[in-house]
Amino acid sequence: MKKTRHVLGISGGKDSAALAVYMKTKYPSINMEFYSCDTGKELDETYQLVKNLEVYLGIKIELLLATRETSEADPFDHFLKMHGGYLPSATARWCTKKLKLDPFEKYVGNDPVLSYVGIRGDEEREGYISTKSNIQSIFPFRKNIWSEDIIAKVLSNQNLDKVMPMFSNVDWGRNKEKVEALISKKIDTSFTLKHKLNAILDSDIKGFNHLVFQFLKTTDYPLAAETDFALLDNEEVLVKSDIFKILEESGVGVPEYYKKIKFEVNGKMGEYARSRSGCYFCFYQQKIEWVWLYEQHPDLFQKALEYEKTGYSWSEEALGDLIKPERIQQIKEDYIKKTEKNAQKKSSLLMDILEDDDAGCASCFV
After folding, report:
1. Spatial separation of the C-alpha atoms in residues 210 and 233, rounded to whole Å
2. Is the distance from CB of 167 to CB of 183 less than 8 angstroms?
3. pLDDT tens string 27-82
């Protein structure tokens, strides 16, 4: 049987970079492979982050290209031509498949692989789950390190008879009776899979991890062949502030595009920055981020604008219309209003908590 490979993809963003530092420092015994899928359309700051990580990790990060033998300047242009100039969008994400997923799956081949993903503990989303059975995703920053497909199997009503005998092989300490009742309770409309998972994790993260590990040994997942797994006893949950702290303290640094830049419109001050890594023309960008690109990287904005000459647009609003002076002003004004509204919501919620007699000591929220 082939040895399980441990791989971590560097997207060029803060979370994957922090995860690389975290795994290297906390779990140095894991023989981690680091790779990055190069679309050819990243910001310079992204490439600089990869270089910084190489220095810190003391290794060369494998750069994966979707295609090497092409007359086009880079992989994106190659596949854009193959798609007849049809730009990718939220409903047609051919760029993700062709430039990210396909190169990754080719890189790992048929080897059993644990793929480490930097989704934070304060994010409500799931990561990529491969359709290939030899690839298993792990999420070290979350309370739940397992992918949703594994959770669905471990906690399903159909597998109760299979899971309960494994329960006694785990040291639950003082939480044994409570967790046993939770695990044996069937899922229904009033007690969903999510409710069940969160209740168990709130009671005993380590115990649950060891239970899942035992269950995996009865499956074909990559961890089935392992005698142990270093993250089973990990109870850390890392959020956004932890990510920035890791990058700053390690010396790797935070990409410049995350740093907020002040702007003024009609006497009001605002701040903008890029919220994600990835291609400079990513269609998931907010309108304020397109304005940021126009004002901070006019050369790249012009290149993004040129792609729309084929008749397709990056979003419902053409970039040529988006950068009209009156439109930029409106986008900035709307963004300031939205930011202020969100700040008021957070402030009101915190005041409600602090003023509630049953909320406990105010210092708990500091």
Report:
1. 8
2. yes
3. 999 999 999 998 889 998 888 999 999 999 999 999 998 876 655 678 899 999 99
